Amino acid sequence: MNTRIDRRTALGTALGGLAAGIAGLAGRPALADGAPIKIGELNSYSRLAAFCGPYRNAMQLAQDEINAAGGIKTIGGRPLEFVFRDDGASPGDAVRAAEELLTREKVVMLAGTFLSNVGLAVADFANQRKTLFLATEPLSDAITMAQGNPYTFRVRPSTYMQTKMIVEAVKGRGIKRWALVAPNYEYGQSAVANFKKLMKEAVPGFEVVSEQFPAFGKIDAGATVGALEQSKPDAIFNVLFAADLTAFVREGNTRGLFENRLVASLLSGEPEYMLPLGDETPEGWITTGYPWDQITNPKHQAFVKAYQAKFNDTPRLGSLLGYVVVHMIAAMLEKSGSTETDKMIAALSGLTVETVAGPVTMRALDHQSTLGAWVGETTRKGRTGSMKNWKYEDGANYMFPEAEVKAARKG
Amino acid sequence: MDLPFLVTQSLSGLASASSLFIISCGLTIVFGVTRIVNFAHGSFYMLGAYLAVSIVPRLLDLHYSLPMFLAGIVAAAVVVGLVGVVMEVVLLRRIYRAPELFQLLATFGVVLVIEDLVVTFWGPLDLMGARAPGMRGAVDILGNRFPVYQLFLIGTGVLVLALLWLLMHRTRYGVLVRAATQDREMVGALGVNQAILFTGTLFLGSFLAGLGGALQSPLIAANSHMDIAIIAEAFVVTVIGGMGSVPGAFLAALLIGQLQAFGILIVPKATLVLVFALMAVVLIVKPWGLLGRPEAPATRAAPEGIANLKPFGRVERIAAVLALGVALLLPVFGDAYLVKLGTEILIFALAAFSLNLLLGNGGIVSFGHAAYFGIGAYAAGLLAIRLGMAMLPALMLAPIVAGLFAALFGVFIVRLSGIYLAMLTLAFAQIAYAVAFQWVGLTGGDNGILGIWPPDWASGRTAYYYLVLVFAVAAIAALRHAIYAPFGATLRAARDSAVRADAIGIDVKLYRLAAFALAGAAAGLAGALYAFANGSIDPTLLAIPLSIDMLAMTLAGGIQTVIGPLVGAAAFHTAKDFFMPLTDYWRLLLGLAIIAMVLAAPQGLAGGWARLRSRFSGAPA
Amino acid sequence: MSLLMVEGLDKAFGGVIAARAVSFALEAGELLAVIGPNGAGKSTVFNIIGGQLRPDAGRVVLAGDTITGLAPRAVWRKGLGRTFQVAQTFISMSVTENVQMALMSWHGEAASLTASAAGLRRAEAIGLLGLVGMAEAADRPISALAYGDVKRVELAIALAGEPKLLLMDEPTAGMAPKERAALMQLVAGLARERKIGVLFTEHDMAAVFGHADRILVLMHGEVIASGPPDAVRRDPKVRDVYLGESGLAAANAAGTAP
């Protein structure tokens, strides 16, 4: 795709003037003493409130803590101010909201987004407008790989990383006959593709006996479970989440799909998706998740205590992420001592932050953070789901190999 | 595939068919009697599920037994039925005399309101309902386990069918419902109190939606996306069966249930498009669904749409010049964001205007206009990114591509009429959506394609704004001229009386096809402009929500006037932009705004203005 | 050769026979009435000639061209103008716009994207409206007219295509008696003056016997009698099965009228 690179290069050069103008605009508030440093946060607060609500709560908690402790000290102790906007769960609305944040709110950078297509659209917009964008939640590998750009960074462990964690956890068992089930969109498809690739490398004789891709949010659980059962797999890899997951689990439980089978599953241990399962939570699924109540790290315990005190609710994975993101941004600003985009990017690349989840580094190579995930087994505690035998897997051990990154990222 | 598997798989299909039937028959009854395309039906289904989640466990705490479970399910359904009654009395009853499409807009407002209210009351987490006592387990069928509850669902579907048959054939109410379904005017002639009939029907329809939702609560966690997930499918069932036909809905649900159950074995990714492809095929072969009857030609006094076309008067001329002046000077007095907003308003104004060429001028209701907007956007994006074409040629070619697709789909679409035509536009739009979604190699799948930015000379916000202004105003002026030209008059003639048009030598279908292609091309231009404005394309640009937005803009402005859609696009987009940053509950506010507007100005904003004017000038409206 | 020749039309709906071996001819300038009780097959025959229905057998020849099975729009091009039992007009338009529309179509201008429809063929349209006595109402919305006036406008629309044959399905239905006579006189005058053949159905026997040159009586889809009004009036079969007492009185009254 030479033409495209040429186009972009030409565009980049020519847009220099405009970009400088915008950067100047964005940087202007830096001159005002004590005025808050505004950061634009875009997310699907309305459409995906289960994740985004706790996420925003934790962000406000972290923001208040940082401001109470004297704001960003290298920038005259100026406080942080997150400006939240709904991205309408659609790329078009998201880009418009991003424009508003940049031009009206004069934010110094953008953060957020949940859905991958929204995240990618905002990333491309940030690239066009030469603005720093911290994609916090979207999992698509494309954000830091094929569609990666110099202005975009991603916090959460990507589809690839989480899938690799699961593969590492199950490959030792040597199970060969797998059935795969995933929502029919990019996340599901790429999780399945990653899983197949990694399992082929790790388990000789690995074989997929059936694949099901129900439309996201519209699973016909009876038919799907029947189709999987029919293929008599020895193990199941599940990528379904949210409403699809609950329907799948109930049907599968009733029909004995999970009996005497290993189930490996993405995200199912996250409270967002585990809470609705209640007393139907299956026993012994290998999954990524967030056992917030069992983490003994004192820093994390303090976070949980503060969160519960402030919101009278238990933290979700969204809460953890929001909290980590704000501290990451604060650390970046402390290091850059400036809100100029170039300096913030320089500061964020390779930055290591001590978070409540442990040390997290923003890898300069692909702008992917090393935030990890907790991998363990699902279990039931009374009427609610929980995790056991879990272990925090540091994302640093699951990053894309350097050669693959270099091959995938353009420019 | 062995026999036991085939049996359990087809039982799974029957169980989902049964649920689908219970929901869809409510929709079809409501449509049959009131002719209202009730978008809120999916919301009632969702309410039923949430209410069951709340009510059933409380009753089971009193006494853990199956009758208590069933009582809870029925109670949830009754409450939803009452909500339906409230909607009828408070909202629909006031607008029965407004254009039918306006009622659709009102129910769309209700969808937005209920969606946010549900999150407010029940919180954002998915909520799993209680399992039915005694039906937690499975039975052994030829060596395979099959859930008892799904067998119960199959039985319930048949029971509902039987009870509805009795109601329709053994009660006076049923006779009236059937009479109204076949001939609305006859009911008036029978001296039936229409209000009571409608209220009763809304109760029955909403009750069935709520029952469907409540029955699903042990299977699917109640969540705030259920409404959208079910409504399109319920429409498909009613249309395949024939609008207004309960047995038809039953047949269609059976068909879809089996198709889903076995279709996913052959093409696991087919679920996205299967039902819509089926609907397209059925409508092409049977234009009124499986058991539907041809719609009697409407004999209403006034057509819904542009009537009494007059050239601009002095006031309108001044307003038009002022509006153009404001548009030209916007970048001078407005900030950068206003320019961005203005760009989008111009683009949507063009899209809505093109929709009204069909809707207001041609009497052709399109529920899938976003398809052509999206095809234009994809054409522009693919030409620019995959072929490296410059922006201007891409902008010129995109409408041609969209127009060709519109013509291709149009060949099948213009053979139909009324609600069936509308649903076929929806089916084609969903098929286009599925192709964009699934053909990852070409379209980038749901992640779409990035990097579609204008070249340097047009990349500034202001420069691009003026570019859009030129294209949009030129296209709108051209479309407006077409409306005033004999071509537009011929379309209106065909809309008013297809029989008369045919008898004076007009090939009605050919004109409608031409209008479809023209409107598709204009929407395609809007889509292409949008692609370069936002730098990316993805399947949401062809999806149902955007089609609904376009309908809402057009209806909000008023389909009776030529400029209505422009006013509507500006008002709708501004309102959305105003509400979105305010709160998480922007859907609620937008929904309330739509409902208020529908009640206050049932002719749309521009229509309301036209009425006001004629009232003060003393001329008949 | 006759202007219109209908030969051996058969049409059945399911098992119900609506027309059987219906044959007749119509000369230019002649008024031919088709009468018969409800369900006798009048509308079926009309719709076959007008192109709305396709016959099972038989053919229709208009001015030497076979038009059997052609679509209404094609039949119109061959020179057939028609009015409907329930008037079919363009309800959102003004009176003159209705006629202009037909004129634009006749002159092949309906598809134009460049012209402006408002003034196109307006003078001609007002001329036609003058013929049917509706010129004063030219700029009124057609929805505001009395039904009798709408039927006149429909006649003007039908005339826009310079028809050789007018097909009029109950042209006076819904009119007051005085209006009926006036309309029939207008039609008869136009037919003779412009050498237009007129085929019409009517329930009003005064209109039929007062104005038709010939009358065709249909019964259960078959022609049971045809001929000049006097002959048909005297035909005992027609008396028995159709006209009855009141019809006969009306027919006689019309026959003795000047």
Q: Can you lay out the helices and strands and say which pair or pack?
A:
The complex is a heterotrimer of chains A (about 400), B (about 625) and C (about 260).
Chain A: H1 2-14, H2 16-27, E1 37-43, H3 49-68, E2 80-86, H4 91-103, E3 109-112, H5 116-129, E4 133-135, E5 152-154, H6 159-170, E6 177-181, H7 186-202, E7 207-212, H8 221-230, E8 235-238, H9 242-255, E9 262-269, H10 271-274, E10 286-289, H11 298-311, H12 317-336, H13 341-348, E11 352-355, E12 358-361, E13 373-381, E14 384-393, H14 402-408
Parallel strand pairs in A: 1-2, 1-3, 3-4, 4-5, 6-7, 6-8, 8-9, 9-10
Antiparallel strand pairs in A: 10-13, 11-12, 13-14
Chain B: H1 3-34, H2 41-62, H3 66-90, H4 100-122, E1 138-141, E2 144-147, H5 148-170, H6 172-182, H7 184-189, H8 194-216, H9 226-241, H10 246-266, H11 274-285, H12 314-333, H13 336-362, H14 370-386, H15 391-413, H16 418-438, H17 440-443, E3 449-452, H18 456-459, H19 461-484, H20 486-496, H21 498-503, H22 508-534, E4 535-537, H23 544-557, H24 564-579, H25 586-600, H26 604-617
Antiparallel strand pairs in B: 1-2, 3-4
Chain C: E1 4-13, E2 16-26, E3 31-35, H1 42-50, E4 57-62, E5 65-66, H2 72-77, E6 80-83, H3 95-106, H4 122-131, H5 147-159, E7 165-169, H6 177-194, E8 197-201, H7 205-211, E9 214-219, E10 222-227, H8 229-234, H9 236-256
Parallel strand pairs in C: 3-8, 3-9, 6-7, 7-8
Antiparallel strand pairs in C: 1-2, 1-4, 4-5, 9-10
Helix pairs in contact in C: 3-4, 3-5, 4-5, 7-9
Provide structural commentary.
The complex is a heterotrimer of chains A (411), B (621) and C (258). With 411 residues, chain A is of the alpha/beta class. Chain A contains 14 helices and 14 strands. The longest helix of chain A is centred in the N-terminal third of the chain and has 20 residues. Chain B is an all-alpha fold. Helix content of chain B is 74%, strand content 2%. In chain B, helix 1 packs across helix 9. The radius of gyration of chain B is 25 Å and the shape is globular. Chain B starts with a helix and ends with a helix. With 258 residues, chain C is of the alpha/beta class. Chain C has a domain of 124 residues: Rossmann fold (3-Layer(aba) Sandwich). In chain C, helix 6 links the parallel strand 7 and strand 8. The longest helix of chain C is centred in the C-terminal third of the chain and has 21 residues. The relative contact order of chain C is 0.17. Chains A and B meet through helix 1, helix 3, helix 4, helix 5 and helix 8 of A and helix 1, strand 2, helix 9, helix 10 and helix 13 of B.
